[in-house]
Amino acid sequence: MTRRRGLHFSKLLSFSCFKSHSSDNHGLIGQKGYSRVVYCNNPDNPEAIKLNYRGNYVSTTKYTALNFIPKSLFEQFRRVANIYFLVVACVSFSPLAPYTAPSVAVPLLVVIGATMAKEGVEDWRRRKQDIQANNRKVKVYGKNYTFHETRWKSLRVGDIVKVSKDEYFPADLLLISSSYEDGICYVETMNLDGETNLKLKLALEVTSSLRDEESLKKFMPVIKCEDPNENLYSFVGTLYYNGDEYPLSPQQILLRDSKLRNTDFIYGVVIFTGHDTKVMQNAVDPLLRGDMYDEETNKPARARTSNLNEELGQVDTIMSDKTGTLTCNSMEFVKCSIAGVAYGRVMTEVERALEMRRGDGPTEVDDALSNLPQNSGNSIKGFNFRDERIMNGQWVNELHSDVIKKFFRVLAVCNTAVPERNKETGEISYEAESPDEAAFVIAAREIGFELFERTQSSISLHELDPVTGNKVTRVYQLLQVLEFSSSRKRMSVIVRNMQKQLLLLCKGADSVISERLSNKGRLFEAKTKEHVKMYAEAGLRTILIAYRELGEDEYRIWEAMFSKAKATVTADRNGLMDEIADKMERDLFLLGATAIEDKLQRGVPACIDRLAQARIKIWVLTGDKMETAVNIGYACSLLRQGMKQIIITLDLPEIEALEKQGDKEAISMASFKSVMDQLKDGKSQVDSAKECPVEFGLVIDGKSLAFALDKKLEEKFLELALDCASVICCRSTPKQKALVTRLVKTGPGKTTLAIGDGANDVSMLQEADIGVGISGVEGMQAVMSSDFAIAQFRFLEQLLLVHGHWCYRRIAMMAYASFSGQPAYNDWYMSFYNVFFTSLPVIALGVFDQDVSARLCLKVEAEVPFVDFRSSVLQYPLLYQEGVQNILFSWPRILGWMCNGVLSSIIIFFFTINSMINQAFRGDGQVVDYGILGATMYTCVVWAVNCQMALSINYFTWIQHFFIWGSIAFWYMFLVIYGSLSPKVSTTAYMVFVEACAPSILYWLVTLLVVISTLLPYFSYRAFQSRFRPMYHDIIQIWRSEGSEAEISDESRAGIKIKMNHLKENLRQRNVS
C-alpha cells in the first residue's frame, strides 16, 4: 500500500482540537486519585522499583490451582440438596444408620466429583485463553538501545514498546510517535466500546519526532497521572520533559486490547499494566454459577455452562449490546434524495417488515425492483445502492443533472477520508473516521466522482464529464475543515475549484441544516423532508447535503476571525470557533439527503418482535452516540412509530456553560439535579398515561447514566425504566453495562440475560444470570466468558422461546417426578434408585420432551377458531410467560406434587402391606418375610414412577420408550444378578426374586393392582385439568389435536377463555407493579 507521507493531518481543525490546553484537572496531579508516577524508559530506577506497580499478567479464571478444591467444594455445598446428602452420608457412618456407608457416600462422591470436573474443564478453557494472551509477543526498548521481543506478561510500567500495524496494544500506552511525521495513528477500539470506526490519536508535538531507536536514547521523562480507573473516555496526566510540563489528554492514550490500524508502527510508554489497565478495570470477577447453526460462518450454538438450562425459560429482561450483536458492523449507502427525487430501489429488511406489519401490497418501486438483478456484479462493501436512472453515468440524462453532480461532489470532497491505492490491483480504498463517511466516499466513487488523492492543501477527484462522457481530473484547493461534533451536528469544508470559485460544502442533521437554508435554497425542501421522513421510518440514518458559493472578501474577513479563534488558548476556545463557523454556515442551498443503513443482522427485527410477543423486555446498552443508537432502535423494532420517547441527557446549554468554567463540583451538583429532575418528569409522563394504550421508550446517555446509577437515584431510574417498553443506554462504558445489569437483576429479582460479542461486553455477560456470547467478528472474548454461544442474534428466539420453554417444563417435571420411597429397603436398592432405576426416564424427559413443537413456540399469531371472542388472537410466544411468571414452580404446584408424592407413597405402602402380610407366599406355606415385602414394594415404586413419567411426557421418541421400559427391565435384571451373589453381599436380596417373587402369582397381581391404584389419582387430575382448567400449553395442544370448533365442548371453551384472560391479567398486573 502507498501512503502520502507529506500529509500532516494535525494541521486540520479536527486535529487542532486534539491539542491539550490548560485544564483545572491537571492541578489535581499528586493528590488522592492522581498519584501515579511513571519513569519512562527507566523501569529499573530505584524510585520506580519502590512503587511496586502490578505486572502485565492477567487472569480471568474463577479458580487457581491452590483454591480449586476448597472453592469448588464450597460452591457444590451451597446447594441445599448436596448438603442434605452430605448429612445423610455422615450419619451412615454411625452404628445407628440403617444403611451401609458406601451405599450412600459413593453416589454423592460421583455426583460431586463429576460436577467439579466439569467446572474444572470450563475454567481450564479460560486459563488457556489467558495463557495465549499473556504470551503474545511485543517489541520492547532495551538497555542496548534496540528493540527486542518479549512476552506481554513481562512488560513493566515505564517500558517503551513498538507496536506494528494490525497488532493489539499490550497495555495502556502513552503515544510517543508514529510512522506519520506528525505523530498521528489510527486505532480500532471495537473490543472496548464496540464501535467499528477508527479513532485518530495524536502524539504531543514535543515527542512526535522520536521516530527511531537512536532518538530514544536520551528520552527519559517522568509522567505523573491519574491512578488506575475504569473510565475509557478520560485521562489526566502531565509529562515532565526537558524542564517543561506538557498536559496529557485521552488523545495520547492507547488502551490495551485496542488495535493499531492503517499505521505502520507506533512507539509508546507503558502507563498501566495488567489488571490496572482500563479494560481490566471494567471487568468484574467471574461469577460462580452454574439445533441452532449458522451456515455462513459454519458456527453451531454451544452450551458452555450446563446448570442454567431451566433459567433459559424464565428470562424477564434481555440486556443487549448493539454493534456486532444487533448489527453486522457495516454501514451501507442505500438511498438518496436529490433535487426532490428519491433514488435507490433496494428495499431494506426493515422496510419489508414495515410493509408486512401494515399489510400493504408491493409498491410501484418494489415491482420495478423485483425485475432487477439484485446481486449483479461484485458486492461492494458500504454500497448497496441500485437505480438505473443515475448509475453507469445515466445521471447526466436526468432533469436536474447539475444538482446531482453537485450532490456527489459534496460527498466526495466534504470528508477527511484518506485514499490508499493498492499497488498490485490498482484499487483505491479509504481510511475514514467513521463508517458513514467511508460509505459516502464509496458511493460518490461508484456514481462517478472518485476521490483518488489528498494532500495537505488539495483534494483530487476523477469526475465524469457530462459533455464528453470521459473521466477528467479536477483538483479542489482545501482551505478549511469545520469538523463534525455532537453539538454542531454538521461538517463543512471550504474549497476553491479550478474555476477559482470559493465553495462551502456542508452535510449534517436535518434539524441544523434546515434552519440554515436561504430562501432560494429551499427549492427542494418540501420533497426532501418527505423523503427524509420516509427514510427515518425505515430506520435509516439520514444526512442533508447543502452548499453555498462564497465571495472573496467575505471569506477573507471570516478567515481572519477564525484563525484568531484557533490560536486562542482560553477555556472558551472551542465555543468561540463554533460561533464563528456558524456565521459562515448560513444561506445554504439544499441539494438533497442521503440514507445510510447500519445493516442489521439477518432476522433481528422478527426476533425482537417475537421476544416482545413473549413479553420479554429488551434493553440495549451500547457505546454508540445517542443518534446512532436511536436510529438502530427504530431499525430493529425496539423503538416503534407512535412510541413516546423519554430522553435523559446532560448535553444541555446550562451544563455546557458550567463545563467551560471548569468548576467540577458545580458541574457535578448541577448534573445530579438535572438527571433527578428528568427522571421525575419521565415518571410523571408514564404515570399520567397509564390509562391510555401508550408505549414509552427510555433513552439515556452515558453521562446521565453515571448519575442515574448513584445510590440516591438508582431506584428512581429503575422504576422509570421498568415502566418503559424499551430502554436504550448510550455511550455506556463496560462497567456501566455491568452495573445496569446488576441493578435490573437485583431490583425486581427477575432473571436477566445479557448478550454481546466483544471484550467490552464481558463484564455485562458475567454479571447477568445468563450470559450469551455471539461468535462474531470481534474475537472470542465474549464467547469465552459466556454460558451459551450462538452465531447470530436471531438464534436467541430459538434459545429462549423454544429450548428455554422446553427446558423449564422438563426440569419442572424432573423435579416433581424424582420423589423417592422411604420403606425399609435393601440399602443398595436405595443407592441405585436415583442412579439406574428412575434417573434415565427423568433425563429423557428433561432432554427430549416438548409440550408444543418449535414451530408453534415461534408462531407469532393465529386465529383461535374455538374461542367465542373471535377478534382475539393466540400469541404462541406467550407460552414463554409460563416460565417468567414461574407458573410451573409456583407454591400451589409444588404443594400439589408433594401431595401426589405423599399419596403415592401411602397407596404403595398400605396396599402392599395389606395385600401381602400374613399371606402364604411360598409352596411350603411360609408367609411374606422382610426381604420379599421390600422387593415387592420396591417393584411397585419402580413401576409407578416410570409409568407416571410416561403419563407426564408430551412428546414420545424411541429413546424415551427405551429408557422408561428399559429402567423397569433393569430392575428385574438387578434383582437376579444381585440376588445371586453371596448372602454376605446381597443380604436380604439373596435369591429373593428367582426363588420367591417370580414364581408367585400374588407378587405379579399385587404389582399390577398397586401400580394402577397409584397412577389413578394423577391420571384423573390431568384429565380434569386439561379439559376444564387448561394451562396455556394445554390450549394449544387441544386446538392442535381436536382442530375444529364443533369438536370442543362449551365447558372447554369457557375454561380456555378464563385461562387466557387470567394470563393476560397477570401480565398487566406485573407490568403495572
Automatic annotation (TrEMBL):
It is a multi-pass membrane protein. Pfam families: Cation_ATPase, PhoLip_ATPase_C, PhoLip_ATPase_N. The keyword Magnesium applies. Its main location: membrane. InterPro entries: ATPase_P-typ_cyto_dom_N, ATPase_P-typ_P_site, ATPase_P-typ_TM_dom_sf, ATPase_P-typ_transduc_dom_A_sf, HAD-like_sf, HAD_sf, P-type_ATPase_IV, P-type_ATPase_N. Signal peptide: none annotated. ATP binds at D321, K322, T323, E437, F484, K507, R541, T622, G623, D624, R731, K737, N760, D761. GO terms for biological process: phospholipid translocation. The active site is at D321 (4-aspartylphosphate intermediate). GO terms for cellular component: plasma membrane. Keywords: ATP-binding, Magnesium, Membrane, Metal-binding, Nucleotide-binding, Translocase, Transmembrane, Transmembrane helix. Residues 783-1030 form the P-type ATPase C-terminal domain. It is found in: Membrane. The chain crosses the membrane at residues 81-101, 828-848, 894-913, 933-955, 962-981, 1001-1021. GO terms for molecular function: ATP binding; ATP hydrolysis activity; ATPase-coupled intramembrane lipid transporter activity; magnesium ion binding. Its cofactor is Mg(2+). Its EC number is 7.6.2.1. It is an enzyme of class 7 (translocase). Residues 38-99 form the P-type ATPase N-terminal domain. It catalyses: ATP + H2O + phospholipidSide 1 = ADP + phosphate + phospholipidSide 2. This is Phospholipid-transporting ATPase. It comes from Dovyalis caffra. The lineage of its organism: Eukaryota, Viridiplantae, Streptophyta, Embryophyta, Tracheophyta.
